[in-house]
Amino acid sequence: MKAVIYKQTGGPEVLQVIDKAIPQVPPGHVRVRIAVSGVNPTDCRSRSGQSAGMKFDEQVPNQDGAGYIDAVGADVREWTVGQRVWLWDTAYNRPSGTAQEYLVIPTRHVVALPDTASFDVGASLGIPALTAYRTLTASESGPDSLRPGALTGSTVLVHGGAGAVGHAAIQLARWAGATVITTVSSPEKAQLARNAGAHHVINYRTEDVAARVTALAPDGVQRIVEIDLAANIALDVEVITPNGAISVYTFITGDTLKTPTLGLLTKNVQIDFIYTYTTRADQKEQAVAGVNAAVADGAMEVGTDHGLPIARYPLHRTAEAHAAVERGTVGKVLIDVAHH
């Protein structure tokens, strides 16, 4: 089988395509024929060594993907050959990600892909959607799970609505009944955010974000999905409602923060840091189930018409796919591993 590996951290050029034997399936595992592999910024940070050094002699990149069950372990009863599935955290503390034709993975990391969802949708869930789900459910004021109606009556501010996590947060918040306000940096991204389902879109380069948000939500927003806390914290404190929550899901290297303690304190603001890999097991399972329910309802579609353009690469051009993510390609970068 074909697989992409790297044996040392570095730029996209460290990725190489090799031939490997198709792996056997131990108990508690299934083998998945990968159809589509998703590339996330976290995959590039791992490959570059920014987030961690090499844990194995060689590493197959990419956490997310979708495909078919190809074989099951002798003790596995819940899966049968041919079932369509999506995968999460496949390469976390494990040498095998989804940039290969066949992947053997513990059954916990395998989720049935609803019949109405494409492999493109399945490969776009994982890191972004599970992260977005936690940003909307970490607040002590609830809800601790999402479903239609769970956020009715609340307003959510999503910073960076044209990114993969922002896109998923818009879709999930809209599905759960929230009013969604989002910020973007261009008219093109504004259209994508509207396509994703945002009710109100603010171009932060040309508009007064605080004034617009205050006009739209005079009593404040209950939740803020935050992509750049250091840049936005003063704004966030201004527009958040008392007992609101700010959920931070990414970082800028070397970033430090001067905290406007008084504003946060007097409003009883909760700040959560959301790192999907180390999410508590019960919370991760709840996120997987909730995201899959939204997928089954048709709420997590991808493509330009749904706010997340797709850039496609074949497996042998995985290095180019990683480079595309690193240069900030708008939308989702996917790798076609098998014909489907």
Automatic annotation (TrEMBL):
<dbReference type="InterPro" id="IPR051603">
    <property type="entry name" value="Zinc-ADH_QOR/CCCR"/>
</dbReference>
<dbReference type="GO" id="GO:0003730">
    <property type="term" value="F:mRNA 3'-UTR binding"/>
</dbReference>
<dbReference type="InterPro" id="IPR020843">
    <property type="entry name" value="ER"/>
</dbReference>
<dbReference type="InterPro" id="IPR013154">
    <property type="entry name" value="ADH-like_N"/>
</dbReference>
<dbReference type="InterPro" id="IPR036291">
    <property type="entry name" value="NAD(P)-bd_dom_sf"/>
</dbReference>
<dbReference type="Pfam" id="PF08240">
    <property type="entry name" value="ADH_N"/>
</dbReference>
<dbReference type="GO" id="GO:0003960">
    <property type="term" value="F:quinone reductase (NADPH) activity"/>
</dbReference>
<feature type="domain" description="Enoyl reductase (ER)">
    <location>
        <begin position="10"/>
        <end position="335"/>
    </location>
</feature>
<dbReference type="InterPro" id="IPR011032">
    <property type="entry name" value="GroES-like_sf"/>
</dbReference>
<keyword id="KW-0521">NADP</keyword>
<protein>
    <submittedName>
        <fullName>NADPH:quinone reductase</fullName>
    </submittedName>
</protein>
<dbReference type="GO" id="GO:0005829">
    <property type="term" value="C:cytosol"/>
</dbReference>
<dbReference type="GO" id="GO:0070402">
    <property type="term" value="F:NADPH binding"/>
</dbReference>
<dbReference type="Pfam" id="PF00107">
    <property type="entry name" value="ADH_zinc_N"/>
</dbReference>
<dbReference type="InterPro" id="IPR013149">
    <property type="entry name" value="ADH-like_C"/>
</dbReference>
